[in-house]
Design goal:
Elements lengths: L17 E6 L2 E6 L8 E10 L3 E2 L2 E2 L6 E10 L3 E9 L2 H4 L8 E12 L5 E11 L21 E10 L2 E8 L13 E7 L1 E4 L2 E11 L10 E13 L2 E10 L18 E9 L1
Antiparallel strand pairs: 1-2, 3-6, 3-17, 4-5, 6-7, 7-8, 8-9, 9-10, 10-11, 11-12, 12-14, 13-14, 14-15, 15-16, 16-17
Length: 270
Amino acid sequence: MKSKLLKKAFSHSPVKAAFPIAALGFSLTVQAEEAPVPDFSVAYNVGVVSDYRVRGIAQTSGSPALQGGIDLTTKSGFYLGTAASNVKWVKEFNGATKGSYELDLYGGYRAQITDTNFSYDVGVITYRYPGNNSGVAGFYPAGTFTNASTVEIYGDLSYGIYTFKYNRSVGNFLGNLNSSGSQYFDLSAAIDLSNGFTLVPHIGRQLIPNQAGNLGNYSDMSLTLSKDFGNGLSATAAFLTTNASRAFYTDTKGRFLGNNAFVAGLKYTF
């Protein structure tokens, strides 16, 4: 299985500051004016990871990946974005001769539910592998796969530090035959450790219909520690594990893509 989901969320929160002032024998508190929220904002990011993994499955066969993206967020809650990365699985898993990079395009709407600690995010994402010839007649293994490019709809609900997310494919999923309606369930938490550190435990479940013996189905878990250094620079260190089937998730070079892994990353956002 090969999958991804790159979602960047940017929030705008006005900052208030209180300054005690002693004058004429009594104190006053002055509050800074709230900065107006812009109608929209654009953010860019570039980064590198030691091993590109999505839902626990290797996308670059254990090799590093260079990645980048652009996100546009509006004050009303609508957003658009794109992200790109090099990949290997389209060729080395699906047996295509073309398809060395991934281009994701996504858009949606996120908002806070009034007077509650709940927020939600709904949208659509497409994972494009430009020029890929996965499953094309004349190339091994012709007829075993379809075109790798995929569309998913998604929605998530967050409460405090907890987030539950659901993805469902529209059409075939990453080249697997008759796999329309593939689903991914994602439960995670973002635990603030202070001083810019955040710990994120995650558990997920991937379901791919109509695959022999249901061998495409699996669960994955990860534990990620992130550090925000300020000025747009952040780093991550993660341990990932899956119970994916070796029979299903071994590529044409004999490499199992669902093995346990330690992944390090560095990203700059500006």
